[in-house]
């Protein structure tokens, strides 16, 4: 699976806005404040040479997230230039939407959160 584009790196509260991240100190304790939505566009070539494309949108990546808990994916779609084999949809769901690519993206998001917290 190849990631072809990252889009919608925007604030969840303000469509069309920009992603937001900040740090506040409340009663001597740091609070990490961020909220964004990210859309990952992907492409895969099946064994028969057919190319499928799609996207996954991770909503509400925010400061309340616990590392390792996973993220909500509410917008998942795929398309192919022609009908693809019936078993391909099951495999794409398994290795893109439910694991594989999704798992790797979630690890990267968790990594960003760790870096943000360590840096500030």
3D structure, described in words:
With 120 residues, the chain is an alpha+beta fold. It is 26% helix and 45% strand. It contains two helices and five strands; from the N terminus they run βββββαα. It has helices at residues 86-97, 101-119; strands at residues 2-10, 20-26, 29-45, 51-62, 72-80. Strands 1, 2, 3, 4 and 5 form a five-stranded antiparallel beta sheet that branches. It is elongated. It starts with a strand and ends with a helix. The relative contact order is 0.18. The model has no long low-confidence stretch (mean pLDDT 83).
CA-based gyration radius? 17 Å
The class by helix and strand makeup works out as: alpha+beta
Share of helix, binned: 25-40%
Total number of beta strands: 5
Order of helices and strands: EEEEEHH
Q: So how many helices?
A: 2
Task: Identify the overall geometry.
Answer: elongated
The largest sheet, given as strand count, sense and whether it forms a barrel, is: 5 strands, antiparallel
- pLDDT averaged over residues: 83
Low-confidence stretches: none
Distance N to C terminus: 34 Å
Tell me the layout of helices and strands:
Elements: E1 2-10, E2 20-26, E3 29-45, E4 51-62, E5 72-80, H1 86-97, H2 101-119
Antiparallel strand pairs: 1-3, 2-3, 3-4, 4-5
Q: Which terms would index this structure?
A:
120 residues, alpha+beta, 5-stranded antiparallel beta sheet, 2 helices, 26% helix, 45% strand, elongated
């Amino acid at each position: 699976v190849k990631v072809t584009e990252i889009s919608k790196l925007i604030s969840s509260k303000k469509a069309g806005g920009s992603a937001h991240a900040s740090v506040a100190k409340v009663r001597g304790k740091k609070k990490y404040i961020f909220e964004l939505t990210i859309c990952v566009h992907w492409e895969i070539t099946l064994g028969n040479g057919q190319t499928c494309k799609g996207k996954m949108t991770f909503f509400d990546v925010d400061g309340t997230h616990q590392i390792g808990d996973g993220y909500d994916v509410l917008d998942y779609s795929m398309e192919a230039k022609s009908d693809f084999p019936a078993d391909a949809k099951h495999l794409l769901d398994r290795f893109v939407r439910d694991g594989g690519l999704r798992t790797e993206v979630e690890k990267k998001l968790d990594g960003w959160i760790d870096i943000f917290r360590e840096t500030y």
